[in-house]
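sorry for the late reply, my laptop died twice this morning and i had to redo everyting from scratch. anyway the thing you sent over, i finally got around to it. pasting the sequence first so we're on the same page, its 122 residues, then the predicted structure underneath. double check i copied it right bc i was rushing
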Amino acid sequence: EVQLVESGGGLVQAGGSLRLSCAASGFTFDDYAIGWFRQAPGKEREGVSCISSSDGSTYYADSVKGRFTISRDNAKNTVLLQMNSLKPEDTAVYYCAGAPLCKWSLYAMDYWGEGTLVTVSS
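ok and here's the structure:
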């Protein structure tokens, strides 16, 4: 079956760093763009970053540009999200998701993980 499993979340102080990992199985990973989304308490789920399957293009929300870096290792069926200079407003459950193309819309994504919690304290 299709699986996306996030890991690497936890509690970190403002200004610190975390690296999230998304491990994929059950589909042709190389053919899929992988995006990261997050949902903060009381907020709607929003797109954070995405990396394409074709040319490796990367996309970032304005709120994380310059602080987060997305990458993929197709040999390991894994996508990483390196998060630096974390802020309390980054606190959220982070989800990875797969689709043929990068899209900001949740509804364009075919596969979802269960999420990993990131908490940034001040």
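The radius of gyration is 13 Å.
thats about all i looked at so far, will dig more tmrw
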